[in-house]
Structure formats: C-alpha cells, structure tokens
C-alpha cells in the first residue's frame, strides 16, 4: 500500500483521506487550528449516502520529513496554495507524486516550482462536497478526479510508473484513469 500526505482538511481533503485510509493506505491528514483539534478529538465525520460515520484518520499539523510519502495531495483553496506548499517544504529533497486538486489551473506550475523533485499532476475533483458543522457531506454526483489541463507540460501526463501507481490507488475510490 502507498503512503499519502493530504494537505488541507476541508471537505475534499477529509473525504480523500477517509477513502484512502479505509482502502488500507497509510494516510496523514494535515490540518490547522480548530479543525486540527476537532479531528484529533472526533476523527473525520463523514455523511455519505444518507449514513454518517466517524473515521479516525491520522492527523498532524506538519509533515514527517523522516518518512516521506509516496504521494501527496494539495486539497486547499487556490489562494492557500503557498501556505500549503510551505508545509511540504521539509520534503523538498524527496521524490513523490503530488496531486493538486484546486480549481485554479496555476496550482501545478506553482507546486512544481516549489518542489522540483516532485512529479506534479494537476486534477480537479467532481462531486458535491461540503464541510458544515464539522461534518463532511458528499451527496449526489459520484466523486471523480479528472486530470486538469495545465500550462506546464508535466502535470497532465505522469511518467508511467507514478501515473500507474496513482491510477491503481485512486480507481477503486471512484476515480477514472489519470
């Protein structure tokens, strides 16, 4: 199984982390402030298909530079990308696949410049997600992670090995091939 770091514990980051965790992957969800404390106390509260459940995903305020991930994901708002990338700074010398899921097309280029050894893929998440009263709700549209068009060449086509690994990991979670 793969090791993941998910930066951003909003609706999408929390949803991805629970799916990956439940699939048996090693996941570290990075959060801040009140959200970090809530996750430490209660875990991720997820409402999906009308059923609510609690998932205890490992959570931290920082990455562990001693144990770099195989994959990382930036699941923050586009305006938060620089502060999110600062959290990955301890991993700057490591090689891993980085999936950005912001709506902004500039995210992969910014990420690649900050983390030159990472293999960056830009993507966008489809589905209806919201974080309200500490509960992540996913309703209606099945979740999908689609490759995003990007102004830099690398993110839309990963080299075969990282792309295949990430595809094999995300496909069972409801994502189409990258």
UniProtKB/TrEMBL annotation:
Q: According to the lineage, what is the superkingdom?
A: Bacteria
Q: Name one Pfam family in it.
A: ApbA
Q: Signal peptide position in this chain?
A: none
Q: Where is the Ketopantoate reductase N-terminal domain?
A: 5-140
- Name of the molecule in the record: 2-dehydropantoate 2-reductase
Q: Which organism is it from?
A: Novosphingobium mangrovi (ex Huang et al. 2023)
């Amino acid at each position: 199984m793969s090791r993941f770091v998910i930066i951003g514990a909003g609706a999408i980051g929390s949803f991805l982390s629970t799916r990956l965790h439940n699939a048996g992957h090693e996941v570290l969800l990075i959060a801040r402030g009140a959200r970090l404390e809530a996750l430490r106390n209660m875990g991720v509260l997820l409402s999906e298909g009308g059923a609510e459940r609690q998932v205890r995903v490992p959570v931290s305020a920082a990455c562990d530079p001693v144990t770099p991930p195989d994959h990382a994901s930036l699941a923050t708002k586009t305006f938060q990308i620089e502060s999110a990338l600062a959290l990955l700074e301890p991993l700057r010398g490591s090689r891993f696949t980085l999936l950005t899921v912001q709506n902004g097309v500039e995210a992969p280029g910014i990420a690649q410049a900050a983390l030159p050894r990472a293999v960056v893929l830009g993507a966008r998440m489809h589905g209806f997600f919201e974080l309200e009263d500490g509960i992540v709700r996913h309703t209606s549209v099945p979740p999908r992670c689609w490759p995003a068009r990007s102004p830099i060449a690398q993110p839309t086509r990963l080299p075969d090995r990282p792309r295949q690994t990430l595809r094999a990991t995300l496909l069972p979670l409801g994502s189409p091939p990258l």
